[in-house]
């Protein structure tokens, strides 16, 4: 009887020990590592390669509201220079001006009045040498003369004057007066007529 009680006691103690040990054993914790997806939002650095804008200086004088020297973007046209100068005066003669013509650096844009143009037709010698683009000897600098001044050259009308300015803009100016023969319509006899009235600086 006593032996059976001892066995029962031992079994009971064993069960208690098992229960106690199971309670104190460390639980295996499942660690879930959440890998956060780091979105590497690298800002797209758009390379704004801002090309340095080229500028030109143009002298606008004559029949405009505010004559003066103006700084314009390269490739600007005559009408833009006139706008900068406040626009044409009411008595400005615009018939001989190509307002779509591209300007070049250092160009002088002379706007004549209607009265001046009429007087020029009657007495052209009064305007000879009056421009900075005309030398004292009456020769016109074909590198800087505007449309109206180019038409003062004998044998050069509005169409040829425009061709001269377009060639000048495209080629960066004339190196010598003979180069003028490369302009359409100015060769041979035509060049012989104008060569004594032009110069290059």
From TrEMBL:
PROSITE patterns: PROKAR_LIPOPROTEIN (PS51257). GO terms for cellular component: type II protein secretion system complex. Pfam families: HHH_3, SLBB. GO terms for molecular function: DNA binding. One of its GO terms (biological process) is DNA repair. InterPro entries: Competence_ComEA_HhH, Endo/Exo/Phosphatase_dom_1, Hlx-hairpin-Hlx_DNA-bd_motif, RuvA_2-like, Soluble_ligand-bd. Keywords: Signal. Residues 1-21 form the signal peptide. This is ComE operon protein 1. Residues 148-167, 178-197 form the Helix-hairpin-helix DNA-binding motif class domain. Transmembrane segments: none annotated. SUPFAM superfamilies: RuvA domain 2-like. It comes from the Bacteria. PANTHER family: ENDONUCLEASE/EXONUCLEASE/PHOSPHATASE FAMILY DOMAIN-CONTAINING PROTEIN 1, ENDONUCLEASE_EXONUCLEASE_PHOSPHATASE FAMILY DOMAIN-CONTAINING PROTEIN 1. It comes from Blautia hansenii DSM 20583.
